[in-house]
Amino acid sequence: MTDLKLPDELEALWDEAARNPGTEVDVGDTVVCDFCCEDMTTRPDPGGVILQSKAICPACTKKYEHDIELDMADAVRYGRRAERAQPGEAFADFVRRIRGPQGGRISVHTPESVNAKRETP
Ligand SMILES: [Zn+2]
To answer: Fewest beta carbons within 10 Å, which of 30, 39, 94, 116?
Structure first.
């Protein structure tokens, strides 16, 4: 069984997001697989996919290829994000390219934070 633990820095940022619901927290260049929690930030491994809001590393993409293929077809059908890395593109570079210049941001939402956002004119 794989130990699904985020790198400590990212765990701390998620804690910060959880303490401040509805606020975006900048994770910088950090890239972690949303399936296995592997820190891919400085790894050159090419491949991987982004499926809706999940970034899936090359190893997990290979391992779950069949399911990912079906989920990607569904995502495309419903107009949701489903992209593969360019041939030879490192997974971390691919994720940062899709994030764009604003960088990686995480946020935690509660019913209260969602309502507060709705009530903001
Ligand atoms: Zn993975």
So the answer is: 116
Ligand 1 centroid–CA 71 distance in Å is 16
**What single string gives the DSSP state of each residue in 58-119?**
HHHHHHTHHHHHHHHHHHHHTT--EEEPPTT-BHHHHHHHHH-TT-EEE----HHHHHHHHH
Q: Where are the domains of the chain?
A: 8-119
Global model pTM greater than 0.70: yes
| pLDDT tens-digit series, residues 39-63 | 999 999 999 999 998 999 999 999 9
**8 CA to middle of ligand 1, Å?**
17
